[in-house]
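U., I forgot to send this yesterday:
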Amino acid sequence: MASHSWKDAYRGMSSDNIKGLVLALSSSLFIGASFIVKKKGLKKAGASGVRAGVGGYSYLYEPLWWVGMITMIVGEIANFAAYAFAPAILVTPLGALSIIISAVLAHIILREKLHIFGILGCVLCVVGSTTIVLHAPPERPIESVTEVWDLATEPAFVLYAASVLIAVFIIVFHYIPSYGQTHIMCYIGVCSLVGSLSVMSVKAIGIALKLTLSGMNQLVYPQTWAFTLIVLLCVITQMNYLNKALDTFNTAVVSPIYYVMFTSLTILASVIMFKDWDRQNPSQIITELCGFVTILSGTFLLHKTKDMVDGPVPLSVRPPKHMDDEEDGIDHESIPLTLRR
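Result:
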């Protein structure tokens, strides 16, 4: 009886979901490792030239930094491919695993202290990710990119996309000029809102490429190129305002807030467009939400304790704002903040 219920519990995990899971995990591994390799390259370049944190670009001549950059690109390609096989509700939250990998490798390779609460944060992320993986909905069967376009032009998602665009325009033209330098939610709000649309378009392109490689050419459809244009516009906007956020505020604050907003809005967009939850019962949905909250808790704990020491820190030696980003001469290059597109 126990064996039978075990099989029933895992019957819902399709082969496409497994492929998407493997690609998402590979992506987190490559991206998490890339930050460590890049940081070592930045430190090596800074020892013989002008550090990146004070405006130097000597790291561009350092082979180790380029190895890290290539590793990150491989990870992003794997992440891109994951969306072609698995729903965003499975792929996007797993981006937190790159933070764990980066933290663990930094502890082992760079000898950076990983506080006991940081370890607890890692465990929470693993538990939350496992919960989501085991209860994620199966990927919706799609035979053409035109089907994705039909889903994107249904009234519910059109309303969501219109609401996102209106909110972005209000934030950009009304709030950012007055509050952009003092309220972190202005920049991160734009990045997260636009990011949710970019992920849906990336998923559409991934599906188009998967079908094309299987013999059904989707490049002849104008919808494929429309989604490509949307991705380019969204990514440019994302990177612009993310750079503004990183330049204005402490990365230790930007990273977890951005992860929470970006992932939450991406899941919401996926649920509306691809109707992920229509194929699940209430208990599965609640379990997924619990897993997501667990990941968020672990992510916040990791970031809040990344510089914590085991003893009390005298007030006189506590670093001021931005010190963490500048002291290693690496700016935000070494921060494991990944855009799960």
